[in-house]
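Milestone 3.1: sequence recovery, worked example.
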């Protein structure tokens, strides 16, 4: 039992450990220019990662046998340019980007794959890139570029705890709820925006249901667990490819 608790605690602290290890490798010999490079690399990576992330949602849906109708993407992320290659892109979005029209053909596995697929980038690229900084095997300038570029990708699951990861949790919880209650509406707790969903369920004129409170909380907690599991898997992959 003690080993299990220690292991769980280690998994929870891994993201912070990797962040500070990378930061220390970059700024041990502090220079303002190093910090500037990190910031520039961060925003450049973010600008590239966001549209790729959204496209991966679409690719995940198609890979799972679903159909993609519309992917809304903000103009600042090159929506007009990308639309030439991906006709399903619509220029303009309430968010940075959002897959708004897709059909999973009522497959929960396809739905999960659609939501999760972009986080393969976290596992395969983001976390190994972040871990490589702590090795300190390259120049400080290269380390700063790698560190800044890795941050949006490596920590995407935690940025998305109230978004995609809540949605993943809600898909699973809703599935179990539908087994227990045949009349349950599986879409009721499912959303990629926890705050918007909470406003609709709990701060409208409708009566607040205890079941909704429990379902949303369980979905949120499961989403947090899935975010840490994703990071842990990325760490395992990083150990394989980083010597």
């Amino acid at each position: 039992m003690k080993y299990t608790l220690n292991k769980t605690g280690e998994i929870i602290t891994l993201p912070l450990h990797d962040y500070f290890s990378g930061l220390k490798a970059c700024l041990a010999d502090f220079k303002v220019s190093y910090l500037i490079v990190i910031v520039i690399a961060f925003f450049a990576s973010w600008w590239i990662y966001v549209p790729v992330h959204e496209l991966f949602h679409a690719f995940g849906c198609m890979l799972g046998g679903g159909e993609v109708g519309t992917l809304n993407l903000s103009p600042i992320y090159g929506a007009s340019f990308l639309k030439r290659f991906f006709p399903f892109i619509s220029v303009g979005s309430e968010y940075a980007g959002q897959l708004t029209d897709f059909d999973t053909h009522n497959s929960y596995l396809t739905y999960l794959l659609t939501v999760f697929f972009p986080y393969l980038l976290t596992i395969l690229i983001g976390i190994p890139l972040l871990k490589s900084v702590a090795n300190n095997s390259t120049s400080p300038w290269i380390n700063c570029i790698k560190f800044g570029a890795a941050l949006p990708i490596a920590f995407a699951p935690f940025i998305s705890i109230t978004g995609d990861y809540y949605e993943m949790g809600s898909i699973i919880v809703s599935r179990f709820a539908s087994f227990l209650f045949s009349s349950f509406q599986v879409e009721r707790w499912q959303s990629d925006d926890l705050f918007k969903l909470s406003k609709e369920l709990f701060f409208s004129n409708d009566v607040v249901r205890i079941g909704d409170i429990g379902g949303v909380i369980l979905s949120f907690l499961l989403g947090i667990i899935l975010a840490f599991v994703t990071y842990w898997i990325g760490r395992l992959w990083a150990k394989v490819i980083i010597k």
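The mean pLDDT is 91. Residues 2-66+104-241 form one domain.
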